[in-house]
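Aggregate trends can hide what the representation actually does to any particular protein. The sequence in question and its structure tokens are set out directly beneath this paragraph.
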Amino acid sequence: MQQDTTEEATDAQKHRKGLVRVWHAFGYSLAGLRAGLRETAFRQEAVASAVLLPLAPWVGQTWVEVVLLAGVVLMVMIVELLNSGIEAAIDRIGPEWHPLSKRAKDMGSAAVLLSLVLCAGVWAAALWARFF
């Protein structure tokens, strides 16, 4: 009886230790970022991040403000990746419409919306404090 190669690869990661495990985990993380870049929304947020992250030290007046400004931008990208992961898992299950699939996708989308609202609010408040 032959084992599935996917199962072997997954199982192999569980048995790795130390720096070898960290190195392989880093590779999986890079693969996840590459997969995210195939998503339109993530690409748009990556472009916005490329603009906003360098502006954070200029807009923020204290190190706490800089960290908060950069943190909410990165949080949007994190939530978008998680949402894309949820959507991929649901799509893997099957293409047919199901109320629980819709619910999961809608909740992931709502999480992205809330992270964007939070990001916009933090940036608006910081810009207001800096310039007005």
